[in-house]
Structure formats: C-alpha cells, structure tokens
Design goal:
single chain, alpha+beta, five-stranded mixed sheet, about 15% helix, about 35% strand
C-alpha cells in the first residue's frame, strides 16, 4: 500500500511538472529538418510536419530565412496541419542552415506556442575542382634534367571539406605533340614534371592538359586547365667548318686587314646561343691576330691586330676551332620503368658530366707574311741632353743612331731634323751627330720647363722612302745673361707737403740664383730730392722729397741682381700737383690707350672747333673807320693808327658776346712788348711753366664767359689771366721789400768804354712813322677783337 501511495504521489508530481513544461516550451527548438541542395523537384514537396498536440484548434505561422528573408519563397507551412513544404532548390555553398520562427495561435488569436525551427542544407557533389587560371606558361631549356619541377598548379573544391565531394587528385589529360622520349607527370600537390629527354626538334612548344578530379560517391566531377611548355633549343648540334676564303697573306706592318674568313654550318636554331659560333686560335704566340664572329652569317673573321715583321717570321701557322656559346648537350633514353625516373644517357649540359661530348671542329691555316720597305729604327726613341745657354755655335749636343731592319730592300738612310722650333740644331746626315746652329737661350718661348724639344728623322732611300722618328729633349741651363730692368719706364708722382712715393717693380728673366731679390741704387745728384725704400727686394718705393718741383724729371736707377750683374735704368718721373690737376695721372695712362675711335672723335672735335673759329670772325661790327687828323695846330703830328675814338664806330654789346677769341701766341707777343712782361715772366712759378707747356700743346685757349676751355683767350679771360699774373708780380715785389734802381754800365757818365754791348740810338728826328705800318701778323690779332673779318 505504501508503494501504491508513493506511486500516486509521483504521478501527480509528473502531471504537475508536465503542465509546467508545456508552459515553458513555448520557446523551445524542436528537431531540425533537412533540405537537400539542388533538389530537382517536382515542387512543392513535403519536408515534414510540425506536431503540437492540443485539445483545441491552433493555427501555424512561420517567419525567417527561406520565407520572408533571403532566400525568400523557399518554404511554406500549412496553417492548419503544420506540414512544411519546399518550393525551390537551395545551394549549400551559399547557405548551410535556414533558421525560422514558428508561431502557434488559438482561435482567439492569442499566442499559444512559439518555437524555433532549423533546417539543415544537405551538401551534394555539385562543384568540381577548379583551377585559378585557365592557362599556364613556362619556358625551359632543352637540356633541363628529368624530374625537374616545370611548374606548380593548385586547384580548389567548394563542396563540404573533408568529404569525398571535396577531395580530388591531379592527372595528365593530353599532350600535344606527344614526345617519343619524354613523359609528363603530375605530382600529388600539383607539380608538373617530366621523365626522359625533351627534344626541341620534336616540338618547341608542348601543350599539356592538366586535370583535377574529385572523389564524389554518387558522381565524380572534374575540371581542366592548359599548360604551355616552351622549349629553348639546346646545343645538341655542334658547328662544322665547311670552308674558308681570303688571301691568307699579310704585308708586314699592316693592321686591320682581313686575310681569312671561316664558314660553318649548325643545325640548331639560328641566332640563338646554341647556334652562335665562338672561335679560338692556337699558334698566335705574338698576339698578332684576333678572330670575331659575324653576327649574321656566323662566319669567323680573322683580323690582323698587331703588325707582323717579315724579318722575324715569313709565315704563321694557325689552328682554328669552333664551338657554340652554349655548351654542347645530348640526351638518350636507355630504359623506361613504370615508376620513378627513366634511365637516360646525357653528355654536357647541367645533367651531364663536365667535359663530356665530342670535340669541337677545327682547321689549320698558314698565313704568309710579305716583306715591305721598313723605316729605319732609332736605337733610342727618346734622347736627353743638356747645354748651358749661350754656348758657341757648333757645340756638340748628342749622337743618335738608327738601323734599317730590311733584308730585301735598300738599307741606306740619312738623318734629318724633323721639328726644330727655334732652328737651334744641325745634324750630320750620315753620322747622326747633333750640334748647335744657334746659341741656345733659356728664356726662349720655345722652352717648356727649361726643356727644348726637337724631332729627328732617319729617312731611307726606298720607294717610297720610309722615315723613322726619335725625340730629343734638350735641357737648357741658365746663365746670368740678363740684367734686371724696371717693369715701366715712366711714373707719376704727386706734389705734397710731405714726401710722396710711387711703386717700382724690377724684373729679371734669369732663374735662381741669377735673379732677385735685387739691389736698388739711385745715381746722380739725388740727395735731398729722391730716395729708394727699401734698397733690396723685388718691389721698392721711389720717394720724392718736398723740394722737387713739378715737371718731368729723369732719374737714373741702378738695379743689381744676386750675382752683381746690373743695369742703369732711365726712369721718367712726372711730378704734378694732383690737387690742382687731378687728371695728371689719368692723362698719362689714357694717352697710351687712344684708339682709332678716340682719334676719330678728336678729329671731329677739331673740325667743329675750326667751324666755330670761322664763325667767330663773322661777328657784326662797322667796317669803316673814322681817322683822326694827324696835323695839329701846334705843328706836332699824330701817328696814324687803328685806335678808335671812344664812343664812335665800334659797337660793343651791353652783354658780352658768347665767345671772344684771342690766339695764345698773340697774347705772348703783346706781353713781350709791354713793360710788365718781364715782371710777369719772372713771377711765373715752375708750375706755371708746366701748365703753359701743357696748354701750348693744345695751341690755344678758349674762355667762354669766364670759364676756361681749350681754344682761344676771350677778352674777359685775358683780363682774368692778366690779373692773376699781376697779383703774383705784386707778391714778388712785396717779398723784395725796397727796390733800389741799378745803374747799368751803358748808362750815365761812368759807362764802361770796353763794354761789348751795342748802344741803342733812338733818333726821334728821323723816326719813320711807316715802321709802325707793319708790326707783324701777331699784332693784327688785336684788331680782330673789334674789326670784323674782311
């Protein structure tokens, strides 16, 4: 009974727990359904039925993937019976699972149950293995060894991994052309290789079809790709010499000629390393030849690189061999086992032993050497000798020797001077003795670094004559044959209140120890006037003391070198007041640089000056003169002259004319005929004489309205110049203080009767007035001031 009671309690508990479970299962997920991908139909077809047992009627609805989410329209459910149906196929590679929500509602639309449904997509073998590329290409040499990996491919399968549907292997489909001595194989990981021997002559390109095939249980799927294997021709055919052309003779001394061409044949592909020929020479001990390959015909071209000498050898025997740029290679199949590599016999190439294979083809050729007239050869090509400059003409210099190597031609030759820039040398035509034709001079411009270079020739009597050449390097040693000199012969020094100086530079073309530094010494009466500072060196200063007046001075300067050789240089020194005449330095420098353009400008200026001068004489002034009466009432008489009565005919403008002119020589003549000329003359400072001489060189002064210009003296300028000179005379008289008249020997009663001076007799009674009619052309210049030109 107890057990029965416990069983009833347990059943009641289970019932109560079941009701609770129903309430909580509204969010449960029931068993999954399956849907095979790519189902062929017909559609719709039933997947299964959802069972929810109720004592009342419920309505079913589904939402989610395959219904109202991607991919839409795949699934539907019967709202009354709960049957699930599929309306189209699905792709496993796109979706692996479809997740949905199921709602079960009562008649009053209240939610009864909410469930989750998962529908798994079943994979089928619907994807073959795929290659990433449709075409693969690779280029290999014909001599590549068997078993070499030519290329690698990698396929993939989209079916469910680790299933037979996604597992595949590689295999060879077809090969075109099919090689008779080779077989292509695919490795498990997609490596393409071969066994046997590749042959370029069978095919230069092999087309291999590669296959990837899966292991599907229902159906096996596969795909293919193409591999193109390009074969580079190997050197499996050696070149063969087929002939030769050419004179096979060479004249001695010739270079660059082609005495021989070799012709070859090669069965390999043209213009490839397997076809290109490479020639070698044996027997060319002197390196006189070279052989090159014609890139078009593959011929061997023999060229003379260095001249041959008939006297050494009359013929040269050469052995030519030819091979290709690419090493020779051959491959032959001996056995073909079913697995592994085949048995092959190779020679050369990367797979064969080194040095194996046939020997290159060769040909022996004899080259004849023809004798020609060789030039004489100097035993020494560069001679060196030394001489002291200024040696006597005919002094021995050097002896040169040449020999003529000819054995079948004339061997007579003579020596000649080929190049002698200064004509310093003579050479005996038969003995080769070189002597001086002039005195060598180390300071000659023909020397470079104290070396005089001459070229010597040895000329034979052949037809045509041939010439050998040698060089003579003559070292000329210095003597003290040049005295120091100044770099310039004239300088300018300015006047000053303190001693002034100018720089002097001495030069001596002689070399050490016959040059500087030099010793300078002034000659003549120079004490207190001129000095040199310093007395030794290359550059010194000529110092002018303050007592030296302006003008041009000649200074004798003795300059001695280190050995005591000296020269006395006459230096012209122009001393001038640089403040009053600031252009005294520039005038000297510019006077030496006047060119044709400046001369033209000067000529044009003189022409303008002459025209202006002519126009100045055309100034308007009354032509007629009113002469005074020469007879006076008291019996005296006046001398006739051209002096006008003031205020009459000569019309002087209120404003001075633009230009009045007076020649300088007229001014000097006037000053000489005046009593004040001597005083003016004595008052002239040396500077004035210098200015006068400088201006006189221009022939005339011109003063225009009080300003000095080159030309003539105007009336205002004349007065100004006279005033300046008279002021100097007054200054001189002030310095003399009191002046006492001096009685000359011819004056007074104490005249010396033995005086040689002529007496001047002025006989006023017999004075001829006509003496004043012609006072010379210079006085007529005064009349030009007022008298117009006639």
């Amino acid at each position: 009974m107890v057990w029965l009671a416990l069983l009833c309690c347990a059943l009641l508990g289970v019932t109560s727990s079941s009701e609770l479970m129903i309430r909580r299962r509204r969010s449960w997920i029931i068993d999954s359904f399956t849907l095979e991908e790519g189902h062929p139909g017909p559609f719709p077809y039933e997947l299964g039925k959802i069972k929810v047992e109720r004592s009342y009627q419920i309505t079913f609805e589904i939402f989610g993937m395959g219904v109202d989410e991607h991919p839409e329209g795949v699934l539907t459910i019967d709202s009354t019976t709960g049957i699930l149906s599929a309306h189209k196929s699905v792709d496993y590679e796109e979706l692996k699972t479809l997740k949905l929500k199921l709602l079960a509602s009562k008649d009053d639309k209240t939610l009864d149950t909410k469930l989750g449904i998962e529908i798994s997509i079943l994979d089928i073998n619907d994807n073959p293995p795929r290659f990433p590329n449709d075409l693969y290409e690779v280029t290999v040499e014909e001599a590549v060894a068997q078993g070499t990996n030519l290329l690698s491919v990698l396929a993939y399968d989209r079916d469910l991994p680790e299933t037979p549907n996604s597992t595949f292997h590689y295999e060879i489909g077809t090969v075109s052309p099919k090689p008779p001595n080779a077989e292509f194989v695919m490795g498990l990981s997609g490596q393409l290789s071969f066994r046997g021997c590749l042959d370029y002559e069978v095919g230069d390109v092999y087309k291999v079809l590669l296959v990837a095939k899966d292991h599907g249980e229902v159906v096996s799927l596969s795909s293919t790709t193409t591999a193109l294997i390009h074969i580079q021709d190997g050197n499996n055919h050696l070149p063969v010499i087929t002939g030769k052309t050419g004179t096979m003779t060479v004249k001695e001394g010739e270079t660059g000629v082609v005495p021989l061409r070799l012709h070859v044949a090669d069965r390999d592909l043209e213009h490839t390393p397997a076809w290109n020929a490479k020639y070698t020479i044996e027997g060319d001990t002197g390196g006189n030849f070279k052989v090159e390959t014609d890139p078009i015909t593959n011929d061997g071209i023999l060229t003379v690189l260095k001249p041959l000498d008939f006297e050494e050898v009359t013929e040269r025997e050469l052995l030519f061999s030819v091979e290709n740029e690419m090493p020779y290679y051959s491959c032959k199949v001996k056995a073909r086992p079913t697995s592994g590599l085949w048995e092959v016999d190779t020679s050369g190439g990367p797979a064969g032993p080194v040095g194996a294979g046939p020997k290159p083809d060769s040909l022996r050729v004899t080259i004849q050497v023809e004798d020609i007239n060789d030039p004489p050869m100097f035993t020494v090509l560069v001679h060196e000798a030394g001489l002291v400059e200024n040696v006597a003409i005919g002094t021995y210099v050097q002896t040169v020797t040449a020999v003529d190597p000819d054995s079948s031609h004339a061997r007579d030759f003579v020596y000649k001077i080929g190049k002698d820039p200064g004509d310093w040398l003579n050479v005996d035509p038969h003995t080769g003795v070189i002597t001086t034709a002039k005195r060598p001079d180390r300071e000659s411009p023909h020397l470079v670094d104290n070396i005089y270079t001459a070229i010597l020739h040895a000329v034979d009597s052949g037809e045509p004559p041939m010439t050998g050449t040698a060089t003579l390097l003559l070292h000329v040693f210095d003597q003290n044959d040049n005295a120091p000199t100044l770099s310039v012969n004239n300088v300018v020094v300015c006047i000053g209140d303190v001693p002034t100086s100018t720089n002097l530079t001495a030069l001596d073309p002689d070399d050490v120890p016959f040059g500087g530094p030099f010793t300078f010494e002034l000659l003549g009466e120079v004490e207190g006037k001129w000095s040199v500072d310093p007395l030794h060196g290359y550059k010194v200063n000529l110092v002018k003391e303050t007592i030296v007046h302006s003008g041009i001075h000649m200074v004798e300067l003795k300059i001695s070198d280190l050995q005591g050789a000296f020269a006395v240089n006459n230096l012209s020194v122009t001393v001038c007041d640089c403040t009053a005449t600031p252009s005294c330095r520039e005038r000297r420098a510019s006077s030496s640089t006047v060119g044709f353009g400046a001369a033209g400008i000067l000529f044009f200026a003189l022409l303008v000056l002459m025209i202006t001068l002519m126009l100045s004489f055309l100034m308007t002034c009354k032509k007629d003169f009113t002469f005074l009466k020469t007879d006076l009432p008291n019996g005296e008489s006046l001398l006739s002259s051209n002096v006008e009565i003031p205020g009459t005919d000569c019309k002087i403008p209120t404003k001075p004319p633009t230009k009045f002119y007076l020649p300088v020589h007229d001014f000097v003549e006037i000053m000489q005929r005046t009593s004040s000329f001597k005083a003016v003359q004595e008052s002239f400072h040396q500077q004035d004489y210098w200015e006068y001489n400088q201006r006189r060189s221009t022939h005339m002064y011109q003063y225009q309205e009080g300003s000095a210009k080159s030309g003539f003296l105007s009336d205002g300028g004349l007065l100004e110049l006279l005033q300046q000179r008279m002021q100097r005379v007054q200054a001189t008289e002030d310095d003399l203080h009191d002046y006492y008249p001096h009685l000359y020997a011819d004056e007074g009663d104490d005249a010396d009767p033995h005086n040689d001076q002529e007496k001047i007799d002025i006989l006023e009674a017999v004075f001829d007035h006509r003496q004043l009619d012609d006072l010379g052309p210079r006085f007529k210049g005064l009349a030009s001031v007022c008298t117009p030109a006639q």
